[in-house]
Specification:
Blueprint: H1 4-12, H2 20-35, E1 47-51, H3 56-65, E2 74-76, E3 84-88, E4 94-99, H4 103-107, H5 117-127, H6 130-133, E5 134-138, H7 145-149, E6 155-157, E7 164-166, E8 171-173, E9 176-178, H8 200-215
Parallel strand pairs: 1-2
Antiparallel strand pairs: 1-3, 3-4, 4-5, 6-7, 8-9
Helix pairs in contact: 1-2, 1-3, 2-3, 2-5
Length: about 220
């Protein structure tokens, strides 16, 4: 059995304290890996974790599962949910875990002497059975594990801004490659015109392409 207390101590070193969401992260990683029958922490890339929020919860997942963004075994889809999907990369099997809706209330049953909600959760989450902590659902990764992970060494340049795009994250429209920001699907907007090798005409073409797709 994994040493949960050792994992919690390791997670807490990143914050100088331990909080309930770190506990949830550690427990979720252990339960998610068990659902896939994978041992953790891993040093290979057999396990992929997709976390649905950032913050201390993810620190718990990282230390328990041995995954990281740099190793490309941890991804972020920020839905603002303390939830994560665990994927067996070799088989494609995936399990999504989330806290049960009444988990905060149930925590008090496992820490009856603690009247403060925060500390009842901190203590309760450490000892509650998995089935009382989490819902576990079998899920299908969209658009597929292979597409999500991509292939090493694949790179193209955006025809609008000229920047390099890795991991097949380009959008192909009418035979040309666009990065997501240039195609209007980025998280930022350029505040001023960028000077460089790309002409204004190509930028205009990218904008027209976006409008054509939206109109379809």
């Amino acid at each position: 059995m994994p040493d949960i207390q050792a994992l919690l101590r390791l997670s807490s070193t990143r914050h100088s304290h331990l909080c309930p969401r770190q506990v949830l992260g550690v427990r979720m990683a252990l339960a998610g890996a068990a659902a896939l029958q994978l041992e953790i922490p891993r040093a290979d890339k057999a396990l992929l974790v997709i976390a649905e929020t950032d913050g201390c919860f993810v620190d718990g997942v990282e230390v328990a599962a041995g995954v990281s963004v740099g190793h490309r075994t941890l991804r972020m889809e920020d839905y603002g949910k303390v939830a994560a999907t665990f994927v067996n990369v070799k088989t494609g099997e995936a399990a999504r875990l989330a806290p049960r809706l009444d988990v905060r209330q149930r925590a008090h049953l496992y820490a009856p002497d603690e009247a403060r909600h925060y500390f009842a959760q901190l203590a309760g989450y450490q000892v509650m059975p998995d089935e009382e902590l989490f819902t576990i659902a079998s899920v299908t990764i969209m658009p597929g594990v292979e597409r999500l992970i991509s292939r090493p060494g694949v790179r193209v340049n955006c025809c609008a801004c000229g920047e390099e795009i890795l991991n097949e994250r380009e959008i192909v429209f009418q035979g040309r490659n666009y990065c997501q920001p240039c195609f209007g699907q980025g998280y930022y907007r350029q505040n001023q015109e960028v000077t460089g090798e790309v002409s204004r005409a190509i930028r205009f073409e990218a904008a027209i392409s976006r409008l054509n797709v939206q109109a379809q």
